[in-house]
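Appendix B, record 7
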Amino acid sequence: MNKKHKIWQSHIPGAALGAEVINTKMYDKNGNSYMKPDVEFALRFWKRAMKDSGKLIEFKSRTRYTKKSEKRRVQLQNAKFFQWVEDQNNQ
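Structure tokens (predicted):
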């Protein structure tokens, strides 16, 4: 089973941030095959899905309270930075 097939099988229909543990064919020293659940792959897949969705950043930002004025200040600083970058690209 290749990686793309494994990723396709790991999706759970109806669950945006879920990963299913699938069985992978493994071989022992004698060459006999057996099926082993690939939990490590499911965890990597789930962590990547969490990271891509932005949920981890949201969880980390909610660990402490930030005042509304601080949020506004950070938003203004980000807007200034992105405006500066855009001006640099247009020159």
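Remarks on this record: The radius of gyration is 22 Å. The mean pLDDT is 88.
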